[in-house]
Write a structure and sequence with these properties.
The structure holds 2 protein chains of 2 kinds.
Chain A: H1 3-13, H2 21-32, H3 37-47, H4 51-58, E1 72-77, H5 80-84, H6 87-98, E2 111-116, E3 128-130, E4 133-135, H7 140-151, E5 181-183, H8 198-201, H9 206-216, H10 228-237, E6 244-249, H11 258-265, H12 267-281, E7 285-290, H13 298-310, E8 327-332, H14 342-349, E9 373-377, H15 378-390, H16 392-396, E10 406-413, E11 419-424, H17 429-436, E12 443-446, E13 452-455, E14 473-477, H18 483-497, H19 503-520, H20 526-542, H21 546-550, H22 553-561, H23 563-569, H24 582-593
Parallel strand pairs in A: 1-2, 5-11, 6-7, 6-9, 7-8, 10-14
Antiparallel strand pairs in A: 1-3, 3-4, 10-11, 12-13, 12-14
Helix pairs in contact in A: 1-2, 1-3, 3-4, 6-7, 9-10, 9-12, 12-15, 18-19, 19-20, 20-22, 22-23
Chain B: E1 5-10, H1 16-22, H2 27-34, E2 36-37, E3 52-58, E4 61-63, H3 64-76, E5 77-83, H4 85-89, H5 101-111, E6 132-137, E7 147-149, H6 156-168
Parallel strand pairs in B: 1-2, 1-3, 3-5, 5-7
Antiparallel strand pairs in B: 4-6
The chains are: A alpha/beta, B alpha/beta.
Chain lengths: 607, 182
């Protein structure tokens, strides 16, 4: 692999900037098919940092690989909705046609088959990324056609036969992705005329803008629900040589894809929201952190930014306001769920491993480049723009007393109409299921794996911060599904995505997974259920970021809401039942040494 | 009233936890007033001769004999304690868990620096020898464990505190200082 030339070029393109290490690595991965140890050493030398510093970053993100990932790198989504929609058959078809297993690359290096976490296409699964190009609603037959194309050396883009709706079909995107907008609400998905928010904002003082947002009672849409106006106020108050607005477009929670639709159909609303935030907190620069899975939208988003600059809505003297300049750059991730956590996202945006920071200090005082930063969700910024356009009182009138406005939900799984629904807060799960055609559900996973799994008896609960808080993922689990399979899939996801910093999360999640498998295999006892509850509590309490603080939820919320399921699986008459099997565990050594267990087996001493 | 009976064993451990046990120093005189030892390296009784109240085990299980001893302890002891890192987590011996058994055995008997190249290479396979397990297991994966005393080794004070609490029938309250290792 002629990595030297590639590395030199990549370093030059990114001005030997250590903070752009992820961009450099992305280029090398795309061009060389891997980030080899040699490339790592060359990058380190070129940046004047240690090899370990570069290796640490390169090995953190799962779209970087030390060994060749294949000229065609196929990443097939393995989340539960993909499984529900026939992933196994599609995977088998890929393996058969390609001639290698998942996790391998063909001997000639042409095609590599890989698993990946949710890629934000849950309403059109099974889906895969091939060299960054999205393939949705896969079937075994489609997989075979794709493999033929790869063997014939076709460009993955040329293999996209038909395009999705809206901007997906535009010349610059050309993706087969569908928007599946089922319900447009008045805040985020309603039509928006560029300029109508920022022009109003600049007529006010920044303090007045913040007051308007506060009046609206807008809470952060990422799920945690921090008041946006207050965050902006804190950020504005902080002293620093610069302030930043960072938009978190790293929606990685399995089952959420609404930001993808917003980025496709309402990017100008989002960017205007960022400009409003910039005006409010006193920032000149904004960063959109875009998850790697949505990199196919990058050229399109760049074009939207260019158009806004032309219209005078970004850049200098925005909307005619002297002294107000603001512009936005886009930073790409490289595959890591934990980067959805705001401080991990900031680390990643600075070219580091996406490991969460200690807090305090919070990003409002020490954020991007360790300067005052407001980090907001895509949907939050869209809502903020709309609030400036239509007024805080208008916004506050919608939703519930505590949860103002609307929520954009990503609905997927066992329902007739998967897609995006913008609904007022306070909507019950039952009503949502009626809209989506999934009323026979046995369970609904609200808020993705990190959220809550509710049973039929709880379908009258409301989607709102005061009841079922959610970042937007709603997965409908039909009556035919085995719930343990769902829980297992979610726990595997967390084991994979833990950044490894905190022991409770790094070691605790694998322990929970093993314990769950013990129960699933019928070897559990009531004490195993008690262990799951107690260990889950410890992991939640002792992890420092949202990942570990929520990762036991698939188990804990199902023990709470489906206890009978666990109890039906365990042997109630026994206090303890080991998984350990002596005969099985001496097999390997017996084959080598010729020793036989009989002489040693205390259960069978005279055999 | 007869004294409570204690038994101890070291499985895949280094006897460091037993050494730490002896570090209770002169308190051992109080202890033998309070309890009676049965199967244990401390009095060298090899087999159980009566029911035991508290069994204390150091080390995980790396071979079939470890499993046999552990199961014997479970059968005879009312309360069974995992003592130290190796018993609780597998410890240092468990570092082999990522390496296939064949590689471990060949490293030990064929490739180690102390093998005399002139000798024929022999893999010990006498049936009196315990059989190596596929990996090193913590005790609680094989039998039910009632209490865990962490540390490498657990300090003498921790062992003393645990034993005296048990004998006095008090709940075990371990001060943080006895569990803080850095």
């Amino acid at each position: 692999m002629p990595s030297k030339g590639l590395v030199t070029a990549a370093l030059g393109r990114h001005r030997h900037d250590r903070a752009r290490l992820i961009d450099i690595l992305r280029d090398i991965q795309a061009q060389a098919g891997c980030v080899s140890p040699e490339a790592v050493a060359e990058i380190a030398a070129g940046l004047g940092v240690s090899t370990v510093a570069v290796e640490g970053v390169a090995t953190f993100y799962h779209f970087f690989s030390a060994r060749p990932a294949g000229t065609y790198a196929v990443y097939l989504n393995d989340n539960i909705v993909s499984v529900m929609k026939g992933r196994a058959a599609v995977a088998a078809a890929f393996e058969k046609a390609v001639g290698c297993k998942f996790g391998e690359t063909t001997p000639d290096g042409r095609i590599g088959l890989h698993r990946t976490s949710c890629i934000g296409m849950n309403d059109q699964e099974p889906a895969a990324l091939i060299n960054g190009v999205v393939f949705t609603s896969l079937t075994p037959a489609k997989a075979r056609v794709i493999v033929e194309g790869m063997k014939a050396g076709m460009d993955p883009k040329a293999m996209v036969a038909s395009f999705g709706d809206g901007a997906n079909a535009s010349k610059i995107v050309r993706a087969m992705v569908k928007n599946n907008i089922r319900k447009e609400g008045p805040v985020v998905l309603a039509p928006f005329r560029s300029g109508s928010a920022i022009k109003k904002a600049v007529k006010l003082t920044p303090e007045e803008v913040i007051a308007e947002v506060k009046k609206s009672n807008l809470l952060g849409r990422g799920g945690a629900g921090f008041p946006t106006g207050l965050k902006w106020e804190f950020c504005r108050r902080e002293k620093g040589e610069a302030h930043y607005v960072v938009c978190n477009a790293d929606e990685g929670e399995p089952g959420t894809f609404k930001d993808r639709v917003i980025l496709t159909e309402r990017p100008h609303l989002l960017f205007e929201g960022m400009a409003v935030a910039g005006y409010a907190v006193g920032a000149k620069e904004g960063v959109l952190y875009l998850r790697a899975e949505y990199a196919y939208l990058l050229p399109y988003l760049q074009k939207v930014l260019a158009d806004l600059r032309k219209k005078g809505l970004l850049g200098k003297k925005i909307a005619g306001k002297t002294g107000f300049s603001f512009d936005i750059t886009i930073k790409l991730g490289a595959g890591a769920y934990v980067c959805g956590e705001e401080s991990a996202l900031l680390q990643s945006a600075q070219g580091e491993r996406g490991e969460p920071r200690d807090r305090p200090p919070f990003p409002v005082s020490s954020g991007y480049r360790f300067l005052p930063t407001t980090v907001n969700n895509v949907e939050t910024l869209c809502a903020a723009a709309r609030i400036l356009e239509k007024g805080g009182a208008w916004f506050k009138d919608m939703g519930t007393a505590r949860s103002a406005g609307t929520k954009v939900l990503s609905v997927s799984g066992d329902c007739k109409k998967p897609g995006v629904y913008e609904v007022p807060f306070g909507l019950t799960v039952r009503r949502l299921l009626e809209m989506a055609g999934g009323t026979d559900a046995r369970a609904v996973q609200v808020g993705g794996p990190s959220g809550c799994c509710i049973s039929r008896g709880q379908f009258d609960r409301a989607i709102a911060f005061e009841d079922l808080a959610t970042g937007g993922s709603v997965i409908v689990i039909g009556p035919q599904r085995k719930l343990f399979e769902v829980i297992h899939n979610f726990m595997e996801f967390f084991v994979e995505e833990s950044c490894g910093w905190c022991v409770p999360c790094r070691a605790g999640n694998p322990l929970l997974l093993r314990k769950l498998e013990k129960i699933m295999s019928g070897k559990g006892t009531p004490s195993d259920i008690a262990d799951l509850e107690s260990w889950g509590k410890t992991i939640k309490a002792m992890s420092r970021c949202g990942l570990g603080q929520t990762s036991p939820n698939p188990i804990l919320t199902t023990i709470q809401n489906f206890r009978e399921l666990y109890e039906s699986k365990v042997d109630r008459n026994r206090d303890f039942k080991p998984e350990f099997d002596l005969a099985e565990s001496v097999k390997a050594a017996s084959e080598i040494t010729g020793q036989k267990l009989a002489a040693h087996d205390p259960e069978n001493p005279h055999a | 009233m007869s004294k409570p009976v204690i038994a101890t064993a070291s499985l895949a451990g280094c006897f460091g936890c037993h050494m730490s046990f002896l570090d209770i120093d002169e308190r051992i005189l109080d202890l033998i007033d309070l309890v009676e030892f049965n199967k244990s390296p401390i009095d060298d009784i090899k087999t159980f001769t009566k029911p035991v109240d508290v069994g204390i085990i150091e080390g995980g299980c790396c071979n079939s004999e470890n499993v046999e001893v552990l199961r014997e302890f479970r059968k005879h002891c009312k309360v069974l304690i995992s003592l130290g890192e190796c018993a609780i987590m597998g410890g240092l011996p468990a570092m082999r868990n990522g390496i296939p058994v064949r590689e471990c055995l060949e490293e030990a008997y064929f490739h180690s620096p102390t093998i005399d190249p002139a000798d024929p290479r022999l893999m010990p396979g006498d049936e009196d020898l315990p059989i190596i397990l596929d990996k090193v297991y913590p005790l609680h994966e094989i039998v039910k464990i009632d209490a865990y005393l962490p540390g490498c080794p657990p300090s003498a004070d921790l062992i003393w505190k645990a034993l005296t609490s048990l004998l006095e029938g008090k709940p075990l309250e371990i001060p943080y200082s006895l569990l803080k290792f850095d």
